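User: Hi! Is it possible to get a structure for several chains at once, not just one? Here's what I have:
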Amino acid sequence: MSVAQRWTPTPGQLSFMKAALFALCLVPLALLVLDWDRDALGANPIEAVAHATGAWTLRFLLITLAITPLRRLTGLHWLLRLRRMLGLFAFAYGVAHLLAYVWLDQYFDWTAIAMDILKRPYITVGFVALVLMTPLALTSNNRMIRQLGGRRWQALHRSVYAIALLGVVHFWWLVKADVLDPLIYAVILAGLLGIRAWWRQQERIRQLSTPPGAPPGRRVIRIAAR
Amino acid sequence: MLIRQPTDIVPSEITSPELFRARRQFLRLGAGAALAGGAGLVGLPAGAAESLPARLSPLSTDEPLTGRKDVLSYNNYYEFGTDKSDPAANAGVMKTRPWEVRVEGLVAKPRTFGIEELLKLAPLEERIYRLRCVEAWSMVVPWIGYSLSALLQQVEPLGSARYVAFDSHYDPAIMLRRPVLDWPYKEGLRLDEAMHPLTLLTLGVYGEVLPNQNGAPVRIVVPWKYGYKSAKSIVRIRVTDTQPATAWNTAAPEEYGFYSNVNPEVDHPRWSQARERRIGDFRKRPTLPFNGYAEQVAGLYQGMDLKRFY
Ligand code: HEM
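Assistant: Yes, the chains can be modeled jointly so their relative placement is included. Here is the combined structure:
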């Protein structure tokens, strides 16, 4: 940990890492386009595209949510500098996923799409998740952070927890019988949210811990006062 | 409910002898080419396909066939994995010879049939059927077999017989152990459905014996019902007087009924059944009542509320 704490990329190294990460994030999309082009997506390529883009939306969301715990556990604080790009890629894959649905799957049949969104709970939930992601994507730049102010920006971006949860529910509700895949995502999300809750709890206990010898009654009052 | 949809099978569709020969030729060439070039792609050991000569049945549709590679590599056979590509990758280890099918229950002559005997029980026919999956995709598949009624007549169902239950093979050593469904897989039909000429005891596909991922060595195909009604790798057939439990109905009764007739007007609770994507097509097409077999089978359900008995 001490080694990790000591190593911090120079601005040049960080730019290079960002460029490399950008290219890496495009790999799943590039493979998908390539496989589509050479007819290597199996018997039902449209379904394959819907599944791949959906899965990568959720994966990028979880990777984004992993940055804070990873940073805290490793002391690599510069990881935070990569988070915005990961979150924006989650949104980009989400838009690609929506596009795959609207264009490839439904072929712009707006009536069928509207019916799906209204009547199919898994589609409703996915749709809400993507709608909620939109303001986060639009405010993921320095100008908007300044304009909103740190606290408001942070409050807004807390909705990412709900979005990830909706993503998992969407996946859970669309599988026919085998919930193993959504369960794996659910467990990872539970871990990412659980560690935050646990840290917050620890923090609270630290704040609450009263000097030794203080009467126990006081502690109760202080808890109630919070 | 009245079914007003005209049938898809009209005399002009019944294949002429010329077309039949051309198609056989195509099938033979197609199967050969696929074996030479594509066997590895679909997880078949080279030379595994054993040809199975059959006469084209007039019950066949003349819609274009779904490609052999797609039929053999895009499968729902959950015992071998729940991804479409899993069965082709994993089912190869299943031994399909020797194989026996026990036929018992409310029958005068319960019997066990060996697979060799089943292959000779009645003349083999090629039946080109539409296959509609509950997941809203469809195929056109050249199955080989004969009407299940030929087998059932051999055992002579008793007057009290009302239903026919099918048990699939289950071997936890080579199949999924997670209880995704209540293994072994079970399916069932009403006796009159099972005796309907369209209901096929299926032993082959695309001119060859059934590949394992398609339900080798013997399965049922009921073309007017969603695909999961067509049980694979059958080891037991029971004739009963009570409606048998079926795998998907047990797993989610409000989503999968006992009847499971293809019906564009009854949506699956989580998705629409009004349209389907034919494998190989880009745009969806409307789904037909009873998967286009209304003329032949709608009479079986006279007076039944198909929204209630979905
Ligand atoms: C307008 C919004 C959305 C629509 C209409 C939509 C629709 C769909 C559809 C139709 C499928 C394929 C279902 C199937 O063929 O079985 C799917 C799969 C999926 N979607 Fe979405 N979705 C939306 C938003 C999202 C969002 C925001 C996420 C992630 C947070 C997401 C994650 C997934 C995942 C993980 C899958 C399954 C992938 C797999 O099977 O591996 N979707 N979605």
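Residues A 47, 50-51, 54-55, 57-58, 61, 94, 97-98, 101, 105, 123, 126-127, 129-130, 167, 170-171, 174 surround protoporphyrin IX containing FE (CB under 6 Å). Chain A has one domain: 10-209.

User: Great, thank you!
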